Amino acid sequence: MNTPLHGSAKWLRLAAIGGGLAALAGTFAYAAGWIGTQPLTPQRIIDTFEAQAGQHPGYRKNHAKGLCVSGQFLGNGQAATLSTARVFSQARVPVIGRFAIGGANPFAPDTAVPTRSLALELRSDDGQVWRTGMNNPPVLAVSTAQGFYDQVLAGTPDPATGKPDPARQQAFFAAHPESAAWRQWAASYKASNSFANTAYNSINAFVLVNADGKRQPVRWQLVPQTPFQPLPGQVSDPQFLQHDLQQRLALGPLRWTLRLTLAEPGDAVDDPAKPWPAERRSVDAGTLVLEQVDGPEQGACRDLNFDPLILPSGIQASADPILAARSAAYAVSFDRRSRETLSTGARP
User: Fold this and answer.
1) What is the pTM of this model?
2) Is residue 3, in this structure, part of any structural domain at all?
3) Domain containing 237 — which CATH number?
4) pLDDT higher than 50, residue 261
5) Which residues participate in catalysis according to the annotation?
6) Do the Cβ atoms of 100 and 134 come closer than 8 Å?
7) Which pLDDT score is estimated for 328?
8) Alpha helices in the chain (DSSP H)
9) Cα distance between residue 19 and residue 246, in whole Å
């Protein structure tokens, strides 16, 4: 886990991979009012995002560039003994989703940002709603609010180069040994050539509750059924990932396996920086089938707030404080872009 990285190029690579998550981490910390001499609100962090990326009315204030998709989740019943959530026992659950890249710039080239995300809404036939936002890293780099703040500061671009200072990045990671698992992932990360063959992780833990009231902490991952292929060395199309997804879905549906990893006593349920042992038992709960693209920021996903605390009966939040902070920041972003759309008529 403590594989060292040497050289400024590697530190800059870590900075690039961590940029989207560091910005998101900063959102969490500011949103919860955890840092600074005065409480910092979700409104202020959204102001900060806009100050850095510019004004983009009607767009999300992080993961701003994305496109809407739709399909269904095919539950196989294997998780029904773990949770009463209807999504695990219903044969077909309609899904609205959104693929995106990290950051607040809706015009960034698709391959310029290593962070990729997939957000979903599943609406079961009992009227329950489950929303989840997932990212390609399996863990965060830090465990605490102060760590989040330190990471944001370490990733601040140097005005002379427009890039983070490698020495500052190195000092940050040296001061945060809990980042070892994330650094190991980042050092070995190889970008795929598609949203379709990327795995997406909940990062935070949640708790499944079954009919007997038994509680089981889990993390989940969407494992692609599309084979991995590396991202080309040179990409000129700024919409590369979006165009690729449209082309693939024109040929047929794309599939991911929903894999639930079950925590055991002593596992770090409330610490998103700590991985769980690889030998932990997992349950494949069903298959996500995405069938069509509804258009970049058009279609049903445009007006959805993918708040991770919108959960059905049978799935509960863990005590990870990041979850509440995410929810607060997402609400501010949603309210602001909704007002912008109404006042300007902007429909990205």
Assistant:
1) 0.83
2) no
3) 2.40.180.10
4) yes
5) 63
6) no
7) 61
8) 8-31, 42-53, 145-154, 166-175, 180-188, 240-251, 321-344
9) 27
